[in-house]
């Protein structure tokens, strides 16, 4: 009996826009404030965004080689199975459910609700915010249950609107006459030195990497992309480059309008978003409202795209007999892995009520880079293991680029364990909690 298969409906342009949609969420609007507070230097802030963008591009290009070789539902879950074996592959899938992608959905839904609360204050404070975030996860899970074509079209229209508004915001900032080019060279006298500077740069890098999180998601729907061997690598590269350019432009606009010490002060205030405050300086209350609406659009769209793509990991695991059987079923009418979407939604909602935004983002970045490094190193292993395999795309700068990215991921993971041991241990515990689950499903599989 053949495995259930999903239909190839996603075009090249749609794949590129899905990569952009999966990345642009809340980070580019919120993280400038903590970065300014920690670094106190506009040059270091922009440098952190450039470095994080280039490293994310390195990771995307490494991912593209494996994606072109193995374009199936599940992305790295499929690659790791061939490179490292079933157990490691399962831990990756389990880690996505318990930490990485579910945390992304929960954190973005929370920011959506928080931004909505700024526009239209909700009664009940944080409880109401979490209730609205929960409703968003349920709504968009239902949308994705109804079909990939509708969800992908919704994402395409939203991200096109988002890009237009972001470009318009940057243009308005630089032509408003309310900024100062001197702000780019004016560091605060409170800028950290020596070890404190290293710690601040590390914290800033986590903030920037949260902004770029999601570039690998397109591989999860490899089974549904047309001509995936060619279109997935193009989507990964082009989509990531588009986001790097947009992020640098947005952060340059913030730093042109506000001096770094004012942006840092926003981090000390509750319920303030840096991008909204900058928009208020440019065009008053109307600008702040428009920017708040933009954040609603981006977080709504990013939650939708993440739900769409990451549920395919659970679907792939269930097809292999390594997750709840129903998660491997395709809905007979909508042709979607609807049960996998349901299980993902349930855990995302649990995480949403368990942690705060910053706790969730720090947790998922640490966990994600364990596996990002494994992907890059996997490119080297596959070149040695199967040199004659068909590789429609070969990563540029091999082997330097995969080695550099793998080493960076290793350093980030080690430093996180030293700097944030509690978050690191929670992340590792959630990933390793999959070990007994794995052996349960293996035992069950062997009995059938």
How many strand segments? 0
Distinct helical segment count: 18
Give me the strand/helix succession: HHHHHHHHHHHHHHHHHH
Helical coverage, percent range: over 70%
Tell me, briefly, the overall form: globular
Q: Detail the poorly predicted runs.
A: none
Distance between the termini: 15 Å
- Tell me the radius of gyration: 21 Å
Broad structural category = mainly alpha
List the helices and strands and how they pair.
Layout: H1 12-23, H2 27-30, H3 32-39, H4 42-69, H5 76-83, H6 86-98, H7 100-119, H8 126-145, H9 148-175, H10 194-212, H11 228-257, H12 260-268, H13 274-319, H14 338-354, H15 357-385, H16 400-419, H17 421-432, H18 434-447
Helix pairs in contact: 1-9, 1-11, 1-13, 3-10, 3-12, 4-10, 4-11, 4-15, 4-16, 5-6, 5-15, 6-7, 6-13, 6-17, 7-8, 7-13, 7-14, 7-15, 8-13, 8-14, 9-11, 9-13, 13-14, 15-16, 15-17, 16-17
Question: Would you mind describing this structure in some detail?
Answer:
The chain is mainly α. Helix content is 75%, strand content 0%. It is built from 18 helices and no strands. Helix 4 crosses helix 10, helix 4 (42-69) crosses helix 16 (400-419) and helix 15 runs antiparallel to helix 16 (400-419). 54% of the residues are buried. The mean pLDDT is 87.
Put the structure in a nutshell.
This protein has helices at residues 12-23, 27-30, 32-39, 42-69, 76-83, 86-98, 100-119, 126-145, 148-175, 194-212, 228-257, 260-268, 274-319, 338-354, 357-385, 400-419, 421-432, 434-447.
Question: Key terms for this structure?
Answer:
mainly alpha; globular; 448 residues
């Amino acid at each position: 009996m053949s495995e259930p298969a999903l239909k190839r409906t996603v075009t090249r342009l749609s794949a590129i826009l899905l990569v952009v949609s999966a990345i642009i969420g809340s980070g580019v609007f919120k993280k400038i404030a903590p970065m300014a507070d920690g670094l106190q230097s506009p040059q270091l802030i922009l440098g952190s965004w450039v470095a994080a963008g280039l490293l994310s591009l390195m990771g995307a290009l490494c991912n593209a080689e494996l994606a072109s070789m193995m374009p199936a539902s599940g992305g790295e879950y499929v690659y790791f199975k061939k490179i490292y074996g079933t157990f490691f592959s399962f831990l990756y899938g389990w880690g996505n459910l318990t930490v990485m992608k579910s945390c992304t959905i929960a954190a973005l839904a929370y920011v959506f609700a928080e931004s909505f609360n700024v526009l239209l204050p909700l009664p009940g404070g944080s409880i109401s915010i979490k209730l609205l975030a929960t409703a968003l996860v349920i709504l968009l899970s239902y949308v994705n249950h109804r079909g990939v074509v509708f969800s992908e079209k919704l994402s395409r229209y939203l991200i096109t609107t988002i890009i237009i508004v972001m470009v318009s915001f940057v243009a308005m900032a630089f032509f408003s006459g309310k900024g100062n080019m001197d702000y780019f060279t004016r560091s605060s006298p409170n800028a950290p030195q020596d070890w404190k500077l290293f710690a601040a740069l590390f914290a800033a890098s986590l903030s920037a990497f949260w902004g770029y999180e999601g570039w690998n998601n397109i591989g999860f729907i490899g089974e549904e992309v047309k001509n995936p061997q060619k279109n997935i690598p193009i989507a990964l590269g082009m989509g990531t480059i588009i986001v790097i350019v947009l992020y640098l432009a947005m952060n340059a606009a913030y730093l042109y309008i506000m001096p770094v010490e004012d942006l840092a002060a926003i981090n000390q205030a509750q319920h303030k978003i840096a991008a909204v405050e900058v928009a208020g300086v440019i065009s008053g209350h109307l600008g702040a409202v428009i920017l708040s609406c933009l954040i609603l659009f981006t977080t709504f769209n990013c939650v939708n795209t993440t739900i769409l793509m990451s549920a395919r990991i659970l679907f792939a695991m269930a097809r292999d007999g390594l997750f709840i059987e129903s998660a491997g079923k395709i809905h007979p009418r909508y042709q979607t892995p609807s049960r996998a979407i349901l299980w993902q939604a349930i855990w995302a909602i649990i995480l949403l009520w368990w942690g705060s935004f910053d706790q969730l983002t720090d947790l998922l970045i640490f966990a994600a880079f364990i596996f990002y490094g494994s992907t890059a190193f996997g490119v080297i292993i596959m070149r040695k293991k199967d040199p004659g395999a068909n590789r429609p795309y070969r990563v540029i700068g091999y082997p330097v680029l995969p080695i550099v990215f793998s080493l960076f991921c290793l350093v980030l993971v080690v430093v996180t364990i030293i700097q944030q041991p509690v978050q690191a241990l929670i992340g590792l515990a959630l990933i390793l909690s999959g070990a007994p689950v794995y052996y349960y499903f293996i035992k069950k599989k062997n009995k059938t």
